Protein backbone atom coordinates (compact mmCIF):
# COMPACT_ATOMS: atom_id res chain seq x y z
CA UNK A 1 0.00 0.00 0.00
CA UNK A 2 1.66 3.21 -1.08
CA UNK A 3 1.10 6.76 0.00
CA UNK A 4 0.33 7.75 -3.60
CA UNK A 5 -2.85 5.69 -3.47
CA UNK A 6 -4.33 7.98 -0.81
CA UNK A 7 -6.36 10.99 -1.94
CA UNK A 8 -7.41 13.79 0.42
CA UNK A 9 -10.99 14.73 -0.55
CA UNK A 10 -11.68 17.44 1.99
CA UNK A 11 -10.61 18.94 5.28
CA UNK A 12 -12.79 20.72 7.86
CA UNK A 13 -11.92 22.81 10.86
CA UNK A 14 -14.15 21.53 13.65
CA UNK A 15 -15.48 22.51 17.03
CA UNK A 16 -13.11 22.37 20.02
CA UNK A 17 -10.10 22.53 17.70
CA UNK A 18 -8.55 19.92 15.50
CA UNK A 19 -9.33 18.92 11.96
CA UNK A 20 -11.48 16.37 10.16
CA UNK A 21 -10.08 14.93 6.96
CA UNK A 22 -11.87 12.76 4.41
CA UNK A 23 -9.72 10.40 2.36
CA UNK A 24 -10.31 8.04 -0.55
CA UNK A 25 -8.18 5.12 -1.69
CA UNK A 26 -8.39 1.96 -3.78
CA UNK A 27 -8.92 -0.77 -1.24
CA UNK A 28 -7.23 -4.08 -1.93
CA UNK A 29 -9.18 -5.70 0.90
CA UNK A 30 -12.44 -4.63 -0.74
CA UNK A 31 -11.48 -6.00 -4.14
CA UNK A 32 -9.99 -2.82 -5.57
CA UNK A 33 -13.03 -0.62 -5.00
CA UNK A 34 -12.68 3.00 -3.98
CA UNK A 35 -13.25 3.35 -0.25
CA UNK A 36 -13.56 6.46 1.93
CA UNK A 37 -12.72 7.09 5.54
CA UNK A 38 -12.74 10.10 7.85
CA UNK A 39 -9.93 10.91 10.24
CA UNK A 40 -10.18 13.38 13.11
CA UNK A 41 -6.84 14.80 14.23
CA UNK A 42 -6.94 16.52 17.64
CA UNK A 43 -5.05 19.78 18.26
CA UNK A 44 -2.34 17.88 20.16
CA UNK A 45 -0.87 16.45 16.94
CA UNK A 46 0.93 19.78 16.59
CA UNK A 47 3.37 18.48 19.19
CA UNK A 48 3.32 14.67 18.89
CA UNK A 49 1.54 11.55 17.74
CA UNK A 50 -2.00 10.81 18.86
CA UNK A 51 -3.43 7.40 19.76
CA UNK A 52 -6.25 6.16 17.52
CA UNK A 53 -9.80 5.32 18.51
CA UNK A 54 -11.66 3.51 15.71
CA UNK A 55 -15.42 4.15 15.37
CA UNK A 56 -17.51 1.56 13.51
CA UNK A 57 -20.94 2.73 12.39
CA UNK A 58 -24.16 0.76 12.08
CA UNK A 59 -26.43 -0.55 9.34
CA UNK A 60 -27.05 1.85 6.41
CA UNK A 61 -24.34 4.21 7.63
CA UNK A 62 -21.13 5.49 6.07
CA UNK A 63 -17.92 7.04 7.37
CA UNK A 64 -19.86 10.29 7.91
CA UNK A 65 -22.52 9.41 10.50
CA UNK A 66 -20.25 9.22 13.52
CA UNK A 67 -18.25 12.25 12.45
CA UNK A 68 -21.32 14.39 11.88
CA UNK A 69 -23.63 13.28 14.67
CA UNK A 70 -21.59 11.57 17.38
CA UNK A 71 -20.46 14.61 19.40
CA UNK A 72 -17.07 12.90 19.69
CA UNK A 73 -14.76 15.81 18.85
CA UNK A 74 -15.08 17.67 22.14
CA UNK A 75 -13.94 14.84 24.43
CA UNK A 76 -11.42 13.60 21.83
CA UNK A 77 -9.83 17.06 21.69
CA UNK A 78 -9.76 17.19 25.49
CA UNK A 79 -7.92 13.87 25.65
CA UNK A 80 -5.75 14.24 22.54
CA UNK A 81 -7.22 11.21 20.77
CA UNK A 82 -7.47 10.78 16.99
CA UNK A 83 -10.66 9.20 15.63
CA UNK A 84 -10.79 6.92 12.61
CA UNK A 85 -14.18 6.49 10.91
CA UNK A 86 -14.19 3.68 8.31
CA UNK A 87 -17.10 3.02 5.97
CA UNK A 88 -19.47 0.15 6.82
CA UNK A 89 -19.14 -1.91 3.63
CA UNK A 90 -17.70 -1.93 0.14
CA UNK A 91 -19.50 0.36 -2.31
CA UNK A 92 -20.40 -0.54 -5.86
CA UNK A 93 -19.19 -4.13 -5.94
CA UNK A 94 -21.95 -4.85 -8.45
CA UNK A 95 -22.97 -8.11 -6.80
CA UNK A 96 -26.51 -9.16 -7.68
CA UNK A 97 -28.85 -8.35 -4.78
CA UNK A 98 -26.39 -6.33 -2.69
CA UNK A 99 -28.61 -3.24 -2.81
CA UNK A 100 -31.92 -5.00 -2.29
CA UNK A 101 -32.08 -4.83 1.52
CA UNK A 102 -31.05 -2.19 4.04
CA UNK A 103 -29.71 -4.81 6.47
CA UNK A 104 -27.56 -6.83 4.05
CA UNK A 105 -25.01 -5.93 1.36
CA UNK A 106 -24.20 -2.28 0.78
CA UNK A 107 -24.03 -0.43 4.12
CA UNK A 108 -24.14 -3.71 6.04
CA UNK A 109 -20.71 -5.35 5.88
CA UNK A 110 -20.86 -6.68 9.47
CA UNK A 111 -17.07 -6.28 9.92
CA UNK A 112 -16.29 -9.83 8.79
CA UNK A 113 -14.43 -11.45 5.90
CA UNK A 114 -16.87 -13.18 3.57
CA UNK A 115 -16.24 -16.78 2.60
CA UNK A 116 -19.24 -17.22 0.30
CA UNK A 117 -17.56 -16.88 -3.12
CA UNK A 118 -20.30 -14.50 -4.24
CA UNK A 119 -19.09 -11.93 -1.69
CA UNK A 120 -15.55 -12.95 -0.76
CA UNK A 121 -13.80 -10.75 -3.31
CA UNK A 122 -15.25 -7.57 -1.85
CA UNK A 123 -16.88 -8.03 1.58
CA UNK A 124 -13.78 -8.10 3.77
CA UNK A 125 -14.38 -5.32 6.25
CA UNK A 126 -12.47 -7.17 8.98
CA UNK A 127 -9.23 -6.98 6.99
CA UNK A 128 -10.09 -3.46 5.85
CA UNK A 129 -10.44 -2.15 9.40
CA UNK A 130 -7.80 -4.16 11.25
CA UNK A 131 -5.00 -4.35 8.68
CA UNK A 132 -5.51 -2.21 5.63
CA UNK A 133 -6.45 1.11 7.21
CA UNK A 134 -3.60 1.01 9.77
CA UNK A 135 -1.17 0.27 6.91
CA UNK A 136 -2.55 3.15 4.88
CA UNK A 137 -2.26 5.53 7.82
CA UNK A 138 1.29 4.41 8.62
CA UNK A 139 2.37 4.81 5.00
CA UNK A 140 0.94 8.32 4.92
CA UNK A 141 3.21 9.51 7.72
CA UNK A 142 0.29 10.91 9.66
CA UNK A 143 0.85 12.04 13.27
CA UNK A 144 -0.67 8.87 14.72
CA UNK A 145 0.65 6.27 17.15
CA UNK A 146 -0.91 3.10 15.79
CA UNK A 147 0.56 1.01 18.58
CA UNK A 148 -2.13 2.64 20.75
CA UNK A 149 -5.55 1.76 19.32
CA UNK A 150 -8.94 1.21 20.87
CA UNK A 151 -12.27 0.61 19.17
CA UNK A 152 -15.93 1.49 19.62
CA UNK A 153 -19.09 1.43 17.57
CA UNK A 154 -22.85 1.53 17.27
CA UNK A 155 -25.29 -1.33 16.66
CA UNK A 156 -23.72 -3.41 13.85
CA UNK A 157 -20.59 -1.35 14.56
CA UNK A 158 -20.88 -2.22 18.24
CA UNK A 159 -20.87 -5.86 17.17
CA UNK A 160 -17.79 -5.03 15.10
CA UNK A 161 -15.99 -3.30 17.96
CA UNK A 162 -16.64 -6.12 20.43
CA UNK A 163 -15.74 -8.94 18.05
CA UNK A 164 -12.62 -7.33 16.57
CA UNK A 165 -11.46 -6.58 20.11
CA UNK A 166 -12.18 -10.04 21.51
CA UNK A 167 -10.98 -12.02 18.47
CA UNK A 168 -7.68 -10.18 17.98
CA UNK A 169 -4.75 -12.55 18.40
CA UNK A 170 -2.39 -9.58 18.75
CA UNK A 171 -4.34 -7.49 21.25
CA UNK A 172 -4.60 -4.83 18.56
CA UNK A 173 -7.10 -2.82 20.60
CA UNK A 174 -6.58 -1.87 24.23
CA UNK A 175 -10.28 -1.46 25.01
CA UNK A 176 -13.69 -1.74 23.34
CA UNK A 177 -16.99 0.02 23.88
CA UNK A 178 -20.33 0.05 22.16
CA UNK A 179 -23.65 1.86 21.93
CA UNK A 180 -26.61 -0.50 21.41
CA UNK A 181 -24.45 -3.33 20.04
CA UNK A 182 -25.67 -6.49 18.39
CA UNK A 183 -24.27 -8.65 21.19
CA UNK A 184 -25.24 -12.13 20.11
CA UNK A 185 -25.78 -12.05 16.34
CA UNK A 186 -25.97 -15.81 15.86
CA UNK A 187 -29.21 -15.61 17.84
CA UNK A 188 -30.87 -12.59 16.19
CA UNK A 189 -32.43 -12.05 12.75
CA UNK A 190 -29.93 -9.40 11.58
CA UNK A 191 -26.94 -11.58 12.38
CA UNK A 192 -28.41 -14.77 11.03
CA UNK A 193 -29.25 -13.10 7.72
CA UNK A 194 -25.77 -11.61 7.43
CA UNK A 195 -23.89 -14.77 8.35
CA UNK A 196 -26.00 -17.02 6.13
CA UNK A 197 -25.37 -14.63 3.26
CA UNK A 198 -21.70 -13.80 3.64
CA UNK A 199 -20.33 -17.06 5.02
CA UNK A 200 -20.19 -20.39 3.27
CA UNK A 201 -20.75 -22.10 6.62
CA UNK A 202 -23.45 -19.65 7.66
CA UNK A 203 -24.28 -19.16 11.34
CA UNK A 204 -22.19 -22.19 12.30
CA UNK A 205 -19.08 -20.69 10.76
CA UNK A 206 -19.82 -17.37 12.50
CA UNK A 207 -20.15 -18.75 15.99
CA UNK A 208 -16.45 -19.05 16.74
CA UNK A 209 -15.34 -15.83 15.09
CA UNK A 210 -18.08 -13.24 14.82
CA UNK A 211 -20.27 -13.44 17.89
CA UNK A 212 -19.30 -11.34 20.92
CA UNK A 213 -21.24 -13.50 23.37
CA UNK A 214 -19.58 -16.69 22.11
CA UNK A 215 -16.16 -15.04 21.99
CA UNK A 216 -16.22 -13.82 25.58
CA UNK A 217 -17.03 -17.33 26.81
CA UNK A 218 -13.59 -18.39 25.61
CA UNK A 219 -11.78 -15.21 26.58
CA UNK A 220 -10.19 -15.86 29.98
CA UNK A 221 -7.78 -12.89 30.03
CA UNK A 222 -8.94 -9.60 31.57
CA UNK A 223 -10.94 -7.32 29.26
CA UNK A 224 -11.91 -3.65 29.18
CA UNK A 225 -15.43 -3.29 27.82
CA UNK A 226 -18.14 -0.65 28.24
CA UNK A 227 -21.63 -1.00 26.72
CA UNK A 228 -24.61 1.34 26.81
CA UNK A 229 -28.07 0.58 25.48
CA UNK A 230 -31.43 2.32 25.82
CA UNK A 231 -34.56 0.75 27.22
CA UNK A 232 -36.62 2.70 24.64
CA UNK A 233 -34.70 1.14 21.74
CA UNK A 234 -37.10 -0.75 19.46
CA UNK A 235 -34.34 -3.02 18.14
CA UNK A 236 -33.51 -3.94 21.71
CA UNK A 237 -37.17 -4.72 22.36
CA UNK A 238 -37.30 -6.82 19.18
CA UNK A 239 -34.41 -9.00 20.35
CA UNK A 240 -31.79 -7.82 17.85
CA UNK A 241 -29.28 -6.67 20.50
CA UNK A 242 -29.48 -9.23 23.35
CA UNK A 243 -27.14 -7.48 25.81
CA UNK A 244 -28.35 -9.76 28.62
CA UNK A 245 -26.82 -12.76 26.83
CA UNK A 246 -23.48 -10.98 26.67
CA UNK A 247 -23.54 -9.97 30.33
CA UNK A 248 -24.38 -13.51 31.43
CA UNK A 249 -21.61 -15.02 29.31
CA UNK A 250 -19.14 -12.46 30.64
CA UNK A 251 -20.04 -13.04 34.27
CA UNK A 252 -20.04 -16.83 33.83
CA UNK A 253 -16.50 -16.53 32.48
CA UNK A 254 -15.36 -14.49 35.46
CA UNK A 255 -15.44 -11.00 33.94
CA UNK A 256 -16.84 -8.75 36.65
CA UNK A 257 -18.23 -5.19 36.51
CA UNK A 258 -14.69 -3.83 36.53
CA UNK A 259 -14.01 -5.60 33.24
CA UNK A 260 -17.37 -5.64 31.50
CA UNK A 261 -19.72 -2.80 32.32
CA UNK A 262 -23.13 -2.93 30.63
CA UNK A 263 -25.42 0.01 31.36
CA UNK A 264 -29.13 0.12 30.67
CA UNK A 265 -30.13 3.75 29.99
CA UNK A 266 -33.73 4.54 30.80
CA UNK A 267 -35.89 5.67 27.89
CA UNK A 268 -33.15 6.17 25.31
CA UNK A 269 -33.50 4.83 21.78
CA UNK A 270 -31.22 3.58 19.00
CA UNK A 271 -30.39 6.97 17.47
CA UNK A 272 -27.40 9.29 17.39
CA UNK A 273 -29.29 11.42 19.93
CA UNK A 274 -28.59 8.54 22.32
CA UNK A 275 -24.98 8.13 21.19
CA UNK A 276 -24.17 11.83 21.55
CA UNK A 277 -25.58 11.77 25.08
CA UNK A 278 -23.00 9.23 26.24
CA UNK A 279 -20.20 10.09 23.81
CA UNK A 280 -18.00 11.70 26.44
CA UNK A 281 -18.28 8.70 28.76
CA UNK A 282 -17.04 6.41 26.01
CA UNK A 283 -14.13 8.59 24.91
CA UNK A 284 -13.06 9.03 28.53
CA UNK A 285 -13.29 5.28 29.07
CA UNK A 286 -10.84 4.62 26.25
CA UNK A 287 -8.60 7.53 27.27
CA UNK A 288 -7.66 5.55 30.38
CA UNK A 289 -6.02 2.90 28.23
CA UNK A 290 -4.68 4.54 25.06
CA UNK B 1 -55.91 24.20 11.84
CA UNK B 2 -56.99 21.59 14.29
CA UNK B 3 -54.99 19.59 16.75
CA UNK B 4 -56.29 16.38 15.18
CA UNK B 5 -54.29 17.13 12.05
CA UNK B 6 -51.00 16.82 13.93
CA UNK B 7 -49.33 13.41 14.09
CA UNK B 8 -46.41 12.66 16.43
CA UNK B 9 -44.01 10.47 14.42
CA UNK B 10 -41.28 9.95 17.00
CA UNK B 11 -39.77 11.27 20.18
CA UNK B 12 -36.13 11.09 21.28
CA UNK B 13 -34.47 11.74 24.59
CA UNK B 14 -31.46 13.88 23.81
CA UNK B 15 -28.18 15.00 25.30
CA UNK B 16 -28.29 17.63 28.08
CA UNK B 17 -31.90 16.79 28.83
CA UNK B 18 -35.05 17.65 27.00
CA UNK B 19 -36.80 15.89 24.19
CA UNK B 20 -36.88 16.03 20.40
CA UNK B 21 -40.22 15.37 18.74
CA UNK B 22 -40.92 14.85 15.05
CA UNK B 23 -44.38 15.77 13.82
CA UNK B 24 -46.25 15.45 10.55
CA UNK B 25 -49.31 17.36 9.39
CA UNK B 26 -51.20 18.24 6.22
CA UNK B 27 -50.02 21.74 5.39
CA UNK B 28 -52.57 24.13 3.93
CA UNK B 29 -49.81 26.61 3.12
CA UNK B 30 -48.03 23.96 1.09
CA UNK B 31 -51.12 23.00 -0.88
CA UNK B 32 -52.27 20.16 1.34
CA UNK B 33 -49.05 18.17 1.23
CA UNK B 34 -47.77 16.30 4.24
CA UNK B 35 -45.04 18.30 5.94
CA UNK B 36 -42.72 17.38 8.80
CA UNK B 37 -41.06 19.45 11.47
CA UNK B 38 -38.90 18.77 14.50
CA UNK B 39 -39.43 20.42 17.86
CA UNK B 40 -36.92 20.42 20.68
CA UNK B 41 -38.43 20.95 24.13
CA UNK B 42 -35.90 21.89 26.84
CA UNK B 43 -36.13 20.40 30.34
CA UNK B 44 -37.56 23.68 31.64
CA UNK B 45 -40.97 23.01 30.03
CA UNK B 46 -41.70 20.84 33.06
CA UNK B 47 -42.37 24.06 34.95
CA UNK B 48 -43.46 26.60 32.35
CA UNK B 49 -43.60 27.68 28.73
CA UNK B 50 -40.42 28.04 26.71
CA UNK B 51 -39.69 30.71 24.10
CA UNK B 52 -39.17 29.47 20.55
CA UNK B 53 -36.09 29.81 18.39
CA UNK B 54 -36.78 28.84 14.77
CA UNK B 55 -33.96 27.23 12.78
CA UNK B 56 -34.13 27.38 8.98
CA UNK B 57 -31.85 24.94 7.15
CA UNK B 58 -30.10 25.35 3.83
CA UNK B 59 -30.30 23.96 0.30
CA UNK B 60 -30.95 20.19 0.03
CA UNK B 61 -31.68 19.94 3.76
CA UNK B 62 -34.74 18.84 5.72
CA UNK B 63 -36.02 19.37 9.24
CA UNK B 64 -33.37 16.88 10.43
CA UNK B 65 -30.04 18.49 9.56
CA UNK B 66 -30.04 21.16 12.24
CA UNK B 67 -31.42 18.78 14.86
CA UNK B 68 -28.85 16.09 14.14
CA UNK B 69 -25.72 18.09 13.41
CA UNK B 70 -26.12 21.59 14.83
CA UNK B 71 -25.03 20.99 18.45
CA UNK B 72 -27.87 23.26 19.51
CA UNK B 73 -29.40 21.21 22.32
CA UNK B 74 -26.72 21.89 24.93
CA UNK B 75 -26.97 25.68 24.90
CA UNK B 76 -30.75 25.55 24.34
CA UNK B 77 -31.15 23.36 27.43
CA UNK B 78 -28.93 25.73 29.40
CA UNK B 79 -31.11 28.69 28.44
CA UNK B 80 -34.50 26.97 28.45
CA UNK B 81 -35.20 27.65 24.79
CA UNK B 82 -37.36 25.48 22.52
CA UNK B 83 -36.13 24.94 18.96
CA UNK B 84 -38.41 24.62 15.95
CA UNK B 85 -36.93 22.98 12.84
CA UNK B 86 -39.19 23.35 9.76
CA UNK B 87 -38.51 21.57 6.48
CA UNK B 88 -36.93 23.60 3.63
CA UNK B 89 -39.61 23.12 0.97
CA UNK B 90 -42.79 21.24 0.13
CA UNK B 91 -42.26 17.57 -0.68
CA UNK B 92 -43.90 15.71 -3.53
CA UNK B 93 -45.81 18.54 -5.13
CA UNK B 94 -45.37 16.75 -8.45
CA UNK B 95 -44.46 19.91 -10.34
CA UNK B 96 -42.53 19.19 -13.53
CA UNK B 97 -38.83 19.88 -13.01
CA UNK B 98 -38.96 20.39 -9.23
CA UNK B 99 -36.53 17.53 -8.62
CA UNK B 100 -34.14 18.28 -11.47
CA UNK B 101 -31.73 20.59 -9.60
CA UNK B 102 -30.36 20.57 -6.07
CA UNK B 103 -30.62 24.37 -5.77
CA UNK B 104 -34.21 24.81 -6.97
CA UNK B 105 -37.51 23.07 -6.20
CA UNK B 106 -37.51 20.27 -3.64
CA UNK B 107 -35.19 21.13 -0.74
CA UNK B 108 -34.83 24.71 -1.97
CA UNK B 109 -37.95 26.64 -1.06
CA UNK B 110 -36.10 29.88 -0.25
CA UNK B 111 -38.61 30.84 2.46
CA UNK B 112 -40.80 32.88 0.11
CA UNK B 113 -44.34 32.66 -1.23
CA UNK B 114 -44.29 31.78 -4.93
CA UNK B 115 -46.29 33.94 -7.35
CA UNK B 116 -45.47 32.00 -10.51
CA UNK B 117 -48.69 29.98 -10.98
CA UNK B 118 -46.65 26.85 -11.60
CA UNK B 119 -45.40 26.95 -8.00
CA UNK B 120 -47.81 29.17 -6.11
CA UNK B 121 -50.09 26.39 -4.91
CA UNK B 122 -47.28 24.66 -3.02
CA UNK B 123 -44.14 26.78 -2.60
CA UNK B 124 -45.22 29.03 0.26
CA UNK B 125 -42.59 28.46 2.90
CA UNK B 126 -42.92 32.03 4.17
CA UNK B 127 -46.52 31.44 5.24
CA UNK B 128 -45.62 27.95 6.43
CA UNK B 129 -42.92 29.20 8.80
CA UNK B 130 -44.35 32.49 9.98
CA UNK B 131 -48.07 31.70 10.25
CA UNK B 132 -48.93 28.07 9.83
CA UNK B 133 -46.43 26.45 12.17
CA UNK B 134 -47.11 28.87 15.05
CA UNK B 135 -50.84 28.19 14.62
CA UNK B 136 -50.24 24.44 14.65
CA UNK B 137 -48.12 24.70 17.79
CA UNK B 138 -50.65 26.91 19.55
CA UNK B 139 -53.50 24.57 18.69
CA UNK B 140 -51.55 21.61 20.05
CA UNK B 141 -51.33 23.11 23.54
CA UNK B 142 -47.59 22.63 23.64
CA UNK B 143 -45.60 24.28 26.47
CA UNK B 144 -44.40 27.12 24.24
CA UNK B 145 -44.65 30.89 24.54
CA UNK B 146 -45.06 31.90 20.91
CA UNK B 147 -45.08 35.59 21.82
CA UNK B 148 -41.34 35.12 22.33
CA UNK B 149 -39.80 33.98 19.03
CA UNK B 150 -36.41 34.52 17.42
CA UNK B 151 -35.02 33.02 14.23
CA UNK B 152 -31.73 31.75 12.84
CA UNK B 153 -30.56 29.67 9.93
CA UNK B 154 -27.82 28.46 7.61
CA UNK B 155 -27.05 29.52 4.04
CA UNK B 156 -30.47 29.60 2.27
CA UNK B 157 -31.90 29.36 5.79
CA UNK B 158 -29.72 32.29 6.86
CA UNK B 159 -31.32 34.24 4.02
CA UNK B 160 -34.68 33.08 5.35
CA UNK B 161 -33.90 34.12 8.92
CA UNK B 162 -32.68 37.59 7.95
CA UNK B 163 -35.50 38.32 5.52
CA UNK B 164 -38.34 36.99 7.68
CA UNK B 165 -36.94 39.01 10.57
CA UNK B 166 -36.47 42.23 8.61
CA UNK B 167 -39.69 42.01 6.58
CA UNK B 168 -42.03 41.21 9.47
CA UNK B 169 -44.65 43.89 9.90
CA UNK B 170 -45.47 42.58 13.36
CA UNK B 171 -41.95 42.21 14.77
CA UNK B 172 -42.65 38.49 14.99
CA UNK B 173 -39.03 37.72 15.81
CA UNK B 174 -37.04 39.49 18.49
CA UNK B 175 -33.64 38.77 16.94
CA UNK B 176 -32.07 37.04 13.93
CA UNK B 177 -28.79 35.27 13.35
CA UNK B 178 -27.24 33.30 10.54
CA UNK B 179 -24.39 31.01 9.63
CA UNK B 180 -23.02 31.64 6.12
CA UNK B 181 -26.23 33.33 4.92
CA UNK B 182 -27.08 34.26 1.35
CA UNK B 183 -27.06 37.98 2.17
CA UNK B 184 -27.85 39.56 -1.15
CA UNK B 185 -29.66 36.94 -3.25
CA UNK B 186 -30.76 39.30 -6.02
CA UNK B 187 -27.07 39.60 -6.86
CA UNK B 188 -25.99 35.94 -6.71
CA UNK B 189 -26.69 32.94 -8.97
CA UNK B 190 -28.61 30.90 -6.36
CA UNK B 191 -30.97 33.77 -5.58
CA UNK B 192 -31.49 34.82 -9.17
CA UNK B 193 -32.37 31.28 -10.21
CA UNK B 194 -34.82 30.89 -7.32
CA UNK B 195 -36.53 34.24 -7.78
CA UNK B 196 -36.81 33.92 -11.56
CA UNK B 197 -38.36 30.49 -11.06
CA UNK B 198 -40.74 31.06 -8.15
CA UNK B 199 -41.81 34.65 -8.76
CA UNK B 200 -43.79 35.97 -11.67
CA UNK B 201 -41.84 39.21 -11.46
CA UNK B 202 -38.51 37.44 -10.98
CA UNK B 203 -35.60 39.24 -9.37
CA UNK B 204 -37.41 42.57 -9.61
CA UNK B 205 -40.31 41.27 -7.56
CA UNK B 206 -37.86 39.82 -5.02
CA UNK B 207 -35.89 42.97 -4.40
CA UNK B 208 -38.36 44.62 -2.04
CA UNK B 209 -39.34 41.50 -0.12
CA UNK B 210 -36.75 38.77 -0.19
CA UNK B 211 -33.31 40.33 -0.13
CA UNK B 212 -31.71 41.01 3.27
CA UNK B 213 -29.35 43.65 1.91
CA UNK B 214 -32.18 45.54 0.26
CA UNK B 215 -34.44 45.15 3.28
CA UNK B 216 -31.98 46.56 5.77
CA UNK B 217 -31.54 49.67 3.65
CA UNK B 218 -35.16 50.54 4.43
CA UNK B 219 -35.13 49.32 8.01
CA UNK B 220 -34.52 52.35 10.20
CA UNK B 221 -35.56 50.87 13.54
CA UNK B 222 -32.90 49.20 15.70
CA UNK B 223 -32.14 45.57 14.86
CA UNK B 224 -30.50 42.60 16.61
CA UNK B 225 -28.52 40.58 14.09
CA UNK B 226 -25.51 38.26 14.37
CA UNK B 227 -23.84 36.66 11.33
CA UNK B 228 -20.88 34.28 11.10
CA UNK B 229 -19.23 33.09 7.92
CA UNK B 230 -16.01 31.20 7.21
CA UNK B 231 -13.20 32.45 5.03
CA UNK B 232 -12.64 28.86 3.80
CA UNK B 233 -16.22 28.62 2.52
CA UNK B 234 -16.23 27.92 -1.23
CA UNK B 235 -19.70 29.39 -1.68
CA UNK B 236 -18.47 32.57 -0.04
CA UNK B 237 -15.48 32.64 -2.41
CA UNK B 238 -17.81 32.07 -5.37
CA UNK B 239 -19.89 35.13 -4.48
CA UNK B 240 -23.06 33.34 -3.39
CA UNK B 241 -23.13 34.84 0.12
CA UNK B 242 -21.94 38.46 -0.25
CA UNK B 243 -21.85 39.38 3.47
CA UNK B 244 -19.85 42.52 2.67
CA UNK B 245 -22.83 43.92 0.79
CA UNK B 246 -25.04 43.39 3.82
CA UNK B 247 -22.56 44.99 6.22
CA UNK B 248 -22.19 48.05 3.98
CA UNK B 249 -25.95 48.47 3.62
CA UNK B 250 -26.40 48.09 7.38
CA UNK B 251 -23.71 50.61 8.25
CA UNK B 252 -24.96 53.08 5.62
CA UNK B 253 -28.39 52.88 7.24
CA UNK B 254 -26.97 53.61 10.70
CA UNK B 255 -26.91 50.09 12.13
CA UNK B 256 -23.66 49.85 14.05
CA UNK B 257 -21.76 46.83 15.45
CA UNK B 258 -24.09 46.77 18.42
CA UNK B 259 -27.01 46.11 16.08
CA UNK B 260 -25.47 44.16 13.22
CA UNK B 261 -22.46 42.04 14.05
CA UNK B 262 -20.88 40.19 11.12
CA UNK B 263 -17.94 37.96 11.99
CA UNK B 264 -15.48 36.48 9.51
CA UNK B 265 -14.18 33.19 10.93
CA UNK B 266 -10.74 32.22 9.71
CA UNK B 267 -10.50 28.98 7.73
CA UNK B 268 -14.01 27.65 8.41
CA UNK B 269 -16.15 26.27 5.62
CA UNK B 270 -19.86 25.97 4.80
CA UNK B 271 -20.53 22.75 6.71
CA UNK B 272 -22.25 21.78 9.95
CA UNK B 273 -18.77 21.39 11.43
CA UNK B 274 -18.63 25.18 11.17
CA UNK B 275 -22.17 25.66 12.48
CA UNK B 276 -21.63 23.44 15.51
CA UNK B 277 -18.46 25.38 16.37
CA UNK B 278 -20.41 28.62 16.83
CA UNK B 279 -23.77 27.15 17.85
CA UNK B 280 -23.49 28.23 21.48
CA UNK B 281 -22.68 31.82 20.51
CA UNK B 282 -25.85 32.02 18.44
CA UNK B 283 -28.16 30.47 21.02
CA UNK B 284 -26.72 32.74 23.71
CA UNK B 285 -27.21 35.75 21.44
CA UNK B 286 -30.91 35.02 21.09
CA UNK B 287 -31.26 34.14 24.77
CA UNK B 288 -30.66 37.81 25.59
CA UNK B 289 -33.88 38.75 23.80
CA UNK B 290 -36.36 35.89 24.09
UniProtKB/TrEMBL annotation, chains A, B:
State the EC number(s).
Answer: 3.1.2.12
Give the catalytic activity.
S-formylglutathione + H2O = formate + glutathione + H(+)
User: What residues sit in the active site?
Assistant: 155 (charge relay system), 233 (charge relay system), 270 (charge relay system)
Q: Please name the GO terms that the record assigns under molecular function.
A: carboxylic ester hydrolase activity; S-formylglutathione hydrolase activity
Where, subcellularly, is it found?
Answer: Cytoplasm
* Biological process annotations from GO: formaldehyde catabolic process
- UniProt keywords, alphabetically: Cytoplasm, Hydrolase, Serine esterase
Pfam families given in the database record: Esterase
Show the Gene3D superfamilies listed in the entry.
alpha/beta hydrolase (3.40.50.1820)
Supply the SUPFAM superfamilies for this chain.
Answer: alpha/beta-Hydrolases (SSF53474)
Gene Ontology CC terms, in alphabetical order:
cytosol
The family this protein is said to belong to: Belongs to the esterase D family.
Q: What does this protein do?
A: Serine hydrolase involved in the detoxification of formaldehyde.
What is this protein's name?
S-formylglutathione hydrolase
Amino acid sequence: MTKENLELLSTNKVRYGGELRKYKFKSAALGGLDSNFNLYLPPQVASGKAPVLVYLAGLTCTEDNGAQKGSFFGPAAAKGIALLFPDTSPRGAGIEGEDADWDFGTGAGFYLNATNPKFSNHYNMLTHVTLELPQILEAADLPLDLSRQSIFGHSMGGHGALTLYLASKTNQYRSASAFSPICNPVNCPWGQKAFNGYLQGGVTEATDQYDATELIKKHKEPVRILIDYGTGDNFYKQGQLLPENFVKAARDTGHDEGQVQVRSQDGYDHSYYFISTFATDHINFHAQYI
